[in-house]
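Let's practice the habit of predicting before peeking. Look at the sequence and jot down your guess about where helices and strands might fall. Then scroll down.
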Amino acid sequence: MWNTKYFFFLNLTFFTKSITKSTGDTNEVEIHTRLGNIIGLRDSSYIHEETVYKFLDIPYGKAPIGNLRFQKPIPFGAWSNTLNATTLGPACHQSKNQPFQYPGFTEDCLKLNIYVPRDVNSSNNKSVMVWFHGGGFMYGAGNLYDGGMLSLTGNVIVVTINYRLGILGFLASKNNKAKGNAGLWDQILALTWIKYNIKDYGGNPNDVTIFGESAGGISVSLQSLIPSNRGLFNKVIAQSGIANSFRAVSNDTLSSTIAVGKKVGCAYNVPSVNDHNFIECLQAVDADDLIRATNVFQTELGLNILTNLPFAPIVDGELFHKSPIRLLKDRTSSEFNFFQSLDMMIGTCDNDGSLALSFLPGYERKLNFNFSEGLPTHEMCHTLIPVFSKSLFNSNGEVSNAICKKYTVLYNIEEQGLEFVHMYGDATFIAPCTLALSYHSNNIQRATTYQYVFSEEMPSVNPDLPWYRGSAHGSDVSYMFLFEQLKTTSNFTEGARILVDQMRKYWTNFAKTGNPNGPGLPEWKSFDFGSSHPYMNLQSMNTTLRTNYRKTYTDFWNQDLPNILKHGCNQKSCVMPVIG
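Done guessing? Here is the structure:
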């Protein structure tokens, strides 16, 4: 099983003016919206006892159960009675083998949570930030993230959403009604709901920023390549996840679907043109049985889990006609035009490669070494790197040798372990993020482009290895959303409060103006300022502007390896990389 410690991770023309009134309970508030009356919470427990209004577990889509399972979501519409939105609801069905606590799991999970700072009034016209959670498209929920402090810091409305996960959200089939990407369609429906309803809560439907981390970062980046989304959002913040990463789009989802189906007694007829019987069988299986079968299947993937997500977005011929990297390379496409029209901030943690360390310890016995001592160079070059080469470069030996040479550390297995982690981070996150920044910058639509690197270590999130150092995957989320809840139990560094304030101001400034800069903040120059590619290094007591982040390594993945393939391959002997 994955160690989820590191995952931390239609056109209506009127709006009804919100009328706020007391419900008798001084901690509750009732407003009138175009979908019906709704009761939320008035929470004054935040810093300086400022008030945040919370409207929780609001349905945006009908329960995707029965014959609606695996299919595109259907709008929930209006509610008949006053909606009680004072309690966080269950998460979308997912494995229970994880450290996070949820108030249960359900398929009826197409819900969202709204955090409104200070007062609720439909005339406020506040900027809106919509959070897509991470978790490898297998785990997570919007209700893990309290948007209250972020909303207060920037005087913006924060919305967190759920979307379907695992096989329930990303099954792939040949059935036109259930061919894949249901979780992405959920996200689009949530954004559509926000477009036409957020004004009732005081939000500006024409000023929406989508942001997310890990699978959430991939999600917001993928949504930025769908031209039909134009008008649903105009700014994007992708944190430790990007559409052109090899982990963003899967080529194995159909085989994963078939394998899990076999485990629950649903046979797939290979010659079938349209697999109705297979889908109907899976629709009748209990959701818990599907999750258990998926858990077993994941353990069977072995080291391939390093490069292959079992259930993830696919090129479905509808949302995506080509892979994201091909879309980004085609400057004449409507997808590229939409992508460049959006203000964009893209960033990583300085050791996002720690994600690999959530997979590998389970294979120590097979690999015949103790990971706590480090990683022998021989094992990196002859066991782990070939997994990359097989999946991404069709086992090209010259590529494997080049990767081995680039990341070899002689006579120090601890540093070799750390260098492998950096290799995984470079390939999975940093190089593709740098490439996306390059494609987006200097565009004729005058959209802004910013890069950041979060380099603050948070020991309670770091892998438990004596040689490990760096800001682990998901660390930034703890600072952005969870600092107040964790500061008494987690080992934050001196100056963490300053860093938290800086990040929240940068993020909300960007959401309001497309520019993260503001009074009292170190100046953050755009990625395309000059030729040195400035980025903001986010760190306690040391938030500073730097340039050309890991340039020799990003050039290696984005230029050197593609050149090796270009000169040593033909279409039959190897494939071009998903990176670069």
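How did you do? Confidence is low (pLDDT under 50) at residues 1-20, 571-580.
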